[in-house]
Specification:
heterodimer; A: alpha/beta; 5-stranded parallel sheet; 5 strands; B: alpha+beta; 6-stranded antiparallel sheet; 5-stranded antiparallel sheet; elongated
Chain lengths: 143, 1383
């Protein structure tokens, strides 16, 4: 059975990566907005891995804002969106349903603190799909 | 004549009539008054009756008060009779009530009382005749009923009785009758038939008590009020035993309105009353408050009895998070009920009494329980009692023990103590020991008696629930003794005794109390008598006063004569001494000294005399022989006594003499034997006085002009009457002065006229600290000071205001009282109040160099803390101070505010000062010295201090000019010329400077970062310590920047688990448990190395609105309990802290901005490249994995090249970030054990595949600890350089050099290329930022000069290095990875 990956990234870049990963037999569900992300998360689907970009626009609509605590919002606003992916990942992995789901950060950021998560890695953009696939396999293996 | 007679008769008659009339009127008036009084008395008595007998009053309360009074008046013809009848009625009434309340004992009591009255025939008749006594016949019937039910009582338990009563209509009716509302008629019987069911009946009974209580409450009737309240509560309790909540609720509903009202009212009041009583107890207090609130809120809707328990449970749960079972609560309320009882009986006032009662109560309960257990109690009461006192065995025993303890508390020796089991055991043990004793002394009769007693007591103890098997066994062994002691007889005696005392217990208590009171009274009387005697004695003594005056006059006259005679003798001695000092000899010969001593001894009729001299810090004394020891045999003993006095250290001498002086505020001091304690350390005369033959001593200190003690004269007398010497004080002083004059010439002061000493210090000492130390040491020695400290303000160069104060302490080695020194040490650390600076100005402007002040609290804060002590201050002036210049400064003020300007002026004059704390009287006695002495000392000291002040100023000027001593200036200077490329470097150097400036052992800086990451962390960015422990491993933090995870509290208060407040914190002792909460793991790491060290934390708080925390500077004290880092020290040095914060803020802000910019820049640059990479990657993968769509090879190659180019760009971006965003990268290392370094190397090689081939000459590099991405970056840079500068057709070679066999050394990966090589001069240069080799430049090869710099930094961070093994042909560059190095 194909492993299912929820991939949060900018649409333009993400599509090529989605196709790339599908070549390696992954079922990749791509989301580019926070609303979509939560929709997928709240659905009945279960994901084997979260592939997350970190930088994203700060939640602007009320619907999006309602998904976050005041503290989280202020953090994202302060960092001008440079940590949205992290906030999302942290939030999701704190849910019982996703508490064991591994996270792979794929971001242009030089450094991401992955120690806060149960299973997480970081790969700096750009990187070959093969390397990413290898890392995904490692994370899933440890699962 | 006759007419005259008539006139007279008439006159007399008239007078008589008038008199009679007057008399008659008077009589009439008298009768009227009498009647009035009688009437009043009558009313008073009837009122009295009304009030004293509430039942009657109750009966009459249905009518108006006046009518009731009228009726009472009428029936009060024979007050005594009436009262008796009323009493009888009351007794019956009470009996009935108690009966109905199941208080059978009380009921019986009142029945008996009534019987005693009723038996009087006369009264019986009256009762029968008197219709005003209502329902008498009913009462008689009731008595019969009671008697009948009494019989039932003996057969059934309470519930059965209730059932009986329910089924017996008459009883219920009786109740109604007792209430006075119905009469015993057939009609009523029918009417109330339905009333007789259990709940209603009980509640009706309840209502009766409630009504009474309410009634009494309303009318404020004292009599029986408490009783009814208690009855009310009792009834409630009884009800609670047999009824459920629901039943009670229903019952209440079925009440008629009036009863219901009374019920609620009384219930609420009962609760309040009870709750109020127990309000002193915590739970009770809660309960009271709760009930009070409930009562006020719902006056008519109070909770029902069982809810009472629920309420308590709620309260307990609410406040104590616990629950207690119902039984415990019941128990609790019973004990509280007892307290109420005790309170009512006014016994709480006396603790002993209270304890006694409480003990009794507890013991009673326990005994009851025991009786139940042993089936010693009638079955009738058994169940009832069990409900009343639901104690289990353990509970009963506990009660026994409690009562035992309470008895002990009350008075263990008291006879009632016998009652408790434990005490019996105790006594049995005691008797057993007595037995053993007597047995040993063959006092067999006594021994037998005691063992019998012990046995008996043990037996009795067993009855009370206490037992000792050990004792039992011991006693068993003595069975024969017991038997022969006629055990049974003794036992009977003991039993009788016990019964007796048990019966008399309470009597005894009363007796004891009475006796105590009696004793007190007697005592008071005695005191009164004494006072009277005193007064009398006073009167008598005033008489004696005149006689004493006469004696005194005679005495003084005699003393004067004696004085004159002695003065003559003394003048002879002085002449002799004077001559001796002038004639030839430069000093007294030993013989002459001895003869002088002898003369003195004889003159003053002393037993012993000695003159002590200080020679080279040793006391030598010239002593005469002690009279008693003149015999040869006793010489040895004398030697032992006085030997120690001969060689005593000078400090003791000084202490001694100072003490002598200060104790009596005069030159001559007298000590009695009792004055001397070993702790006072008066070695010299202690030894002498300890001798049993000597009693007291007199000390005359010998001092030179500088008040330094150089000797003493000591007299020791046997008789103690040495006060006679006092009148000759002036003569003795003359004598002393002769010696002083002699000594003066001999003794040269170390103090010198030129500055040789000081100059030598300056020449020899390079270190400022040592220099000051030398000066302080010198001052301490010179002025005999215990502590010398200096305080020198350091001025801000620009603002001319004092920033902080340099200060050090020097403690003389002679100081033995360390505690006092420490106290001074601490207390002295005070903040200089800027407002007090005017005082300094006064002192300075007056050019008053010396301040000698023993109570100068207004001058200096230092002195404030050392009042009553002698303190010298040596001011340090700026000699270049120019008044005119100061005026010029005023015209062109440098300072911003006028206040600062004034400060600047002041401190231009005065640099600082030395504080000399002279050796003081450490015993806390008044150290004040005489005016003459003070004057002398002041003059002398001023001269010397003035000179010293000038000299020290010279030194100080030279120090200040060097500007090396002030920590802030060190900071400034240290930081001024520095350029910090990386914030890490800044932190490292900064920590180093802080450490150096404040003399700390270690200094670390933890930087708080938030912006570049969602998480909030503290990073240890620099430290001067070599290693820290983190997650069980040691890290060399100088080399690797270690990340530590901490969270930040919501209120942004600093560091979290670090210190909870935004304030500097000084921790006296790191390992102290109480500081643990204030610590973070941060210090746990370092505690390993600094267990007993003091720590000082400076939070770095940005001065913005949010007061953002930037980090924390952590300083470790030099040694255990180091005081140099105390809080107060830093409070003074606020300027320094502010400076640190300022620097940090600026650096951090700049760094943040740079980081943010670079972050954004990297993101913007990498995103399009990512897109490119992925597109190309996808195409390639499609072909590789699915072989579609078909692409020619050339396209595929191009795709691969595109990807490689793009990926290599990632490393260039990383290089740039590494350099410019130092902080972000500082923490970015994720060093892990990489199993396959070869793979990492190969991946890099793939990226760089160009024309120059790269060949690996190693099969496998072993696993190494590294940050994979970083090392990739390193490989990339090194290989790129190697390829770039290789000649064409030459290959780049890679070798792996393993460590030596013993695992000592390092892993080395060597990169070899054949190319232009590196010039020798560039060997180090190429590792510098933006620096490139000269030949590389000439080659015009592209390059930024960043690559090797980054390589070196990354390798260093790994604990390794990058080195050039060979410059040319081939060029060899090696990457060194450490082995066995923890990082």
């Amino acid at each position: 059975m194909k492993k299912r990956i929820l991939y949060f990234d900018d649409e333009d870049i993400a599509e090529t990566m989605q196709k790339n990963l599908e070549l390696f037999d992954f079922d990749v569900i791509l989301v580019s907005t926070i609303t979509d992300f939560f929709e997928k998360i709240d659905s009945n689907n279960v994901y084997d891995l979260l592939l997350m970009d970190i930088m994203a626009p700060v939640p602007s609509s009320d619907d999006e804002k309602n998904k976050f605590s005041r503290n989280e919002l202020s953090n994202m606003e302060e960092a001008e969106g440079r940590n949205v992916g992290e906030v999302l990942a942290y939030k999701i992995t704190n849910m019982p349903k996703y508490s064991n789901t591994p996270v792979l950060f794929y971001s242009a950021r030089a450094y991401v603190n992955t120690e806060r998560y149960k299973k997480a890695r970081h790969i700096r953009k750009p990187e070959l799909a093969e390397t990413i696939v290898e890392e995904i396999k490692n994370l899933l293996k440890s699962e | 004549m006759k007419q005259q007679r008539i006139y007279v008769t008439t006159l007399i008659s008239a007078v008589a009539i008038i008199l009679l009339v007057l008399l008659g009127t008077s009589c009439k008036n008298k009768t009227k008054t009498k009647s009035k009084t009688k009437l009043e008395n009558l009313i008073g008595s009837t009122n009295y009756y009304r009030f004293i007998d509430l039942n009657t009053a109750f009966n009459y309360s249905y009518q108006s008060l006046s009518e009731a009074e009228e009726r009472l008046k009428q029936s009060a013809k024979d007050s005594i009779m009436y009262y008796t009848l009323q009493q009888g009625e009351a007794f019956l009434n009470h009996a009935n009530l108690f009966y109905l309340c199941s208080r059978f004992d009380s009921a019986q009591y009142y029945i008996n009382k009534f019987d005693s009255i009723y038996k009087q025939e006369k009264i019986k008749e009256t009762i029968e005749k008197d219709k005003t006594l209502r329902n008498y016949s009913t009462y008689l019937k009731m008595i019969q009923g009671i008697q009948q039910i009494e019989t039932y009582l003996r057969q059934y338990n309470f519930q059965d009785i209730c059932r009986l009563l329910v089924n017996e209509p008459l009883s219920a009716l009786r109740y109604q009758v007792a209430e006075g509302e119905v009469t015993d008629t057939v009609e009523n019987k029918k009417k109330y038939k339905n009333f007789y069911n259990t709940e209603k009946w009980l509640w009706a009974k309840m209502a009766y008590h409630i009504k009474y209580a309410t009634y009494n409450y309303h009318f404020d009737l004292i009599y029986n009020k408490e009783e009814h309240l208690k009855d009310c509560f009792d009834a409630l309790s009884q009800l609670s035993y047999i009824s459920s909540n629901k039943t009670i609720k229903d019952s209440v509903k079925s009440f008629d309105e009036g009863t219901l009202f009374h019920y609620y009212y009384a219930l609420a009041n009962t609760y309040r009353q009870l709750a109020k009583t127990i309000a002193s107890d915590t739970t009770g207090g809660l309960l009271y408050n709760y009930l009070d609130a409930t009562y006020k809120k719902h006056e008519k809707d109070t909770t029902i009895p069982n809810l009472y328990f629920d309420n308590i449970q709620d309260l307990l749960r609410k406040y104590y998070n616990t629950t207690v079972d119902k039984n415990t609560i019941v128990k609790y309320f019973y004990s509280k009920a007892l307290e109420i009882y005790l309170e009512q009986h006014d016994v709480l006032e006396k603790t002993k009494k209270y304890n006694y009662w409480l003990a009794n109560f507890k013991q009673d309960i326990a005994v009851i329980k025991m009786q139940i257990d042993n089936n010693e109690i009638d079955s009738i009461y058994k169940n009832f009692l069990l409900k009343e006192f639901p104690l289990d065995k353990i509970g009963a025993k506990q009660y026994l023990l409690d009562s035992d303890g309470l008895f002990s508390k009350w008075g263990g020796e008291h006879i009632d103590y016998f009652q408790s089991g434990a005490s019996k055991i105790f006594l049995a043990n005691y008797y057993y020991s007595e037995y053993s004793k007597h047995k040993k002394t063959s006092d067999l009769d006594s021994a037998k008696y005691y063992i019998a007693s012990a046995d008996s007591l043990l037996f009795k103890a067993k009855e009370s629930g206490a037992y000792s098997f050990q004792l039992h066994e011991m006693i068993l062994k003595t069975r024969s003794d017991i038997d022969s002691a006629k055990y049974s007889e003794r036992l009977n005696d003991l039993q009788d005794f016990r019964t007796k005392i048990f019966k008399n217990t309470r009597k005894n208590v009363t007796k004891i109390i009475e006796e105590t009171e009696k004793t007190n009274r007697e005592k008071a009387e005695k005191e009164r008598e004494q006072r009277v005697n005193q007064i009398l004695t006073g009167i008598a003594s005033s008489g004696l006063f005149f006689i004493i005056l006469i004696f005194l006059y005679v005495f003084i006259y005699r003393r004067k004569r004696q004085e004159k005679e002695t003065r003559d003798i003394l003048s002879q001695i002085i002449d002799y001494a004077d001559k001796a000092s002038k004639v030839g000899d430069e000093k007294f010969s030993e013989n002459s000294m001895k003869s002088l001593v002898e003369t003195l001894r004889t003159t003053f009729k002393s037993e012993y005399c000695a003159i002590g001299k200080v020679v080279d810090d040793i006391v030598e004394d010239y002593a005469c022989d002690y009279e008693e020891y003149k015999d040869k045999d006793k010489k040895q003993e004398q030697k032992r006594c006085f030997d120690k006095t001969k060689k005593t250290h000078i400090s003791n001498t000084n202490n001694l003499v100072c003490m002598a002086l200060r104790n009596k505020k005069q030159d001559i001091s007298i000590f009695r034997k009792s004055d001397i304690t070993p702790s006072q350390n008066y070695e010299i005369y202690k030894n002498a006085l300890v001798s049993k033959n000597l009693s007291n001593t007199i000390i005359i200190p010998l001092r030179d002009e500088s008040s330094k003690n150089f000797g003493y004269i000591q007299f020791i007398n046997k008789t103690g009457n040495i006060s006679k010497i006092n009148p000759f004080k002036s003569n003795l002083l003359q004598l002393v002065r002769i010696i002083i004059n002699y000594e003066k010439n001999k003794r040269e002061l170390d103090f010198i006229k030129d500055s040789k000493f000081i100059k030598s210090i300056i020449q020899q000492k390079n270190n400022v600290g040592e220099l000051f130390h030398e000066i302080m040491e010198y001052l301490s020695k010179e002025f005999n000071a215990a502590i010398v400290s200096f305080r020198i303000p350091i001025l801000d160069g620009e603002k001319k205001v004092p920033l902080f104060y340099l200060r050090e302490f020097y403690i003389s080695p002679s100081v033995t009282n360390q505690e006092q020194v420490e106290e001074f040490y601490y207390k002295n650390r005070v903040i200089i109040d800027q407002n007090k600076l005017s005082d300094y100005k006064i002192n300075c402007s007056n050019k008053k160099n010396v301040i000698f002040d023993i109570s100068a609290d207004h001058h200096y804060i230092d002195l404030k803390l050392s009042l009553k002590e002698q303190t010298l201050l040596i001011p340090i002036y700026n000699d270049d101070f120019d008044e005119n210049k100061c005026i010029m400064d005023k015209e062109n003020p440098i300072c911003e505010s006028s206040e600062n300007q004034n400060c600047a002026e002041r401190f231009k004059r005065l640099y600082g000062w030395f504080t000399l704390r002279l050796f003081d009287n450490s015993e806390g006695q008044d150290p004040k010295i005489t005016e003459q002495e003070e004057k002398y000392f002041k003059e002398r000291a001023e001269e010397r201090l003035s000179y010293l002040s000038g000299q020290i100023t010279l030194i100080f000027n030279s120090i200040v000019d060097k500007s090396e001593n002030a920590s802030l200036q060190v900071f400034r200077k240290g930081l001024k010329g520095q350029q910090f490329l990386r914030i890490k470097d800044f932190d490292k150097q900064f920590a180093e400077i802080v450490k150096k400036s404040v003399h700390a052992k270690e200094c670390s800086i933890y930087r708080y970062r938030k912006n570049d990451d969602y998480s909030e962390q503290i990073y240890l960015s620099a430290t001067t310590s070599k290693q820290i422990l983190y997650k069980g491993k040691k890290y060399s933090v100088n080399e690797i920047i270690q990340e530590l995870h901490y969270s930040i509290t919501d209120d942004q208060s600093i560091v979290v688990r670090g210190f909870k407040k935004k304030e500097s914190k000084y921790l006296y002792k790191l390992s102290d448990e109480k500081f643990r909460d204030d610590f973070i793991e941060l210090f746990d790491n370092e505690i390993v190395f600094a267990k007993d060290e003091s720590v000082f934390l400076i939070p770095i708080i940005k001065k913005d609105e949010n007061q953002t925390c930037l980090g924390v500077v952590v300083l470790f004290g030099k040694e255990k309990n180091d005081l140099s880092l105390s809080t107060s020290y830093w409070e003074q040095d606020k300027a320094l802290i502010e400076f640190i914060v300022d620097i940090f803020t600026r650096i951090s802000e700049a760094d943040n901005e740079r980081s943010t910019f670079l972050n954004q820049l990297g993101h913007e640059l990498l995103l399009p490249i990512t897109e490119l990479v992925q597109e190309n990657n996808l195409m390639l993968n499609r072909y590789n994995l699915r072989k579609e769509p078909f692409q020619p090879n050339i396209v595929l190659r191009q795709l691969k090249r595109n990807i490689d180019n793009c990926l290599s760009f990632k490393y260039i971006i990383s290089d740039i970030e590494d350099i410019y965003s130092s902080l972000m990268k500082d923490i970015a290392y994720k060093i892990e054990l990489q199993q396959e370094p070869n793979k990492i190397l190969n991946e890099t090689i793939e990226l760089l595949q160009a024309n120059t081939p790269i060949k690996m000459f190693t099969s496998r590099i072993p696993p190494l600890r590294m940050d994979k991405d970083r090392i990739k970056q390193v490989f990339f840079n090194v290989l790129q350089n190697a390829i770039k500068y290789s000649y064409k057709d030459k290959q780049v070679e890679i070798y792996y050099v393993p460590p030596s066999e013993n695992d000592i050394g390092q892993h080395e990966i060597k990169f070899v290329n054949y190319g232009i090589g590196i010039l020798e001069e560039d060997r180090n240069r190429i590792f510098e930022l933006y620096k490139r080799g000269k030949n590389a430049k000439e080659l015009r090869a592209s390059g930024s000069g960043m690559g090797l710099y980054i390589v070196k930094e990354i390798m260093k961070a790994h604990g390794g290095d990058c080195i050039i093994r060979k410059l040319k042909n081939p060029t060899e560059i090696s990457l060194i990875f450490p082995i066995n190095k923890i990082y």
